[in-house]
Amino acid sequence: MTMRRLVLVLVPAVLLCAYAVRAEKEDLKSGPQAGDNLPGPLLSIVAYSDEPSLVGKKLDLTERYGQDPVILVFAREMTKPLTDLVRKLDAEVAKRKSAKLRAIVVILSDDDALEQNLKDFAAKDGIKNFNLAFMEPAGPKHYKLSKEADVTVLLYKRQKVEANHAFKKGELNEKGVEKIVADVPKIASKR
User: Fold this and answer.
1) Which CATH superfamily is domain 31-188 in?
2) Mean pLDDT, range 86-114, rounded to an integer
């Protein structure tokens, strides 16, 4: 085979592989998608809350906040990008108190030190407008969270998902955080 024919065969093959990898990354689905209703209760143990009376209790915060707009984050661990996301969303919630915007992070882990670590994080970073909770690593089965997703973010209002963002391990970055923050107006409008 001549070099020219080899190039004509290899270049399209490489481009096809690159497209397939990109499509696979974009197709990560985790949890209910935009347009879906929340699938039901979400019982988790509250480690930190803007409502101190909730701390230490096993609650369904999705039921508690009813029809209010909520940013619900499921994560497998507290990473630097996740803490950056929490800080930015904490500021968004503070700006949108009149819309009754709420935010919940549920860490999916059975780490014995997690509850204290979440309390320490909230105190150290001055988190004021958030609920930090945890539950078993598998997460709520009826939410159908992907095992491939390290972070799943649902933005919903009136129990209906308006936006969904899912990230594999190491994929949540500043650009992803900005996309999530840009979707907050979808749920935090006054109507």
Assistant:
1) Glutaredoxin (3.40.30.10)
2) 95
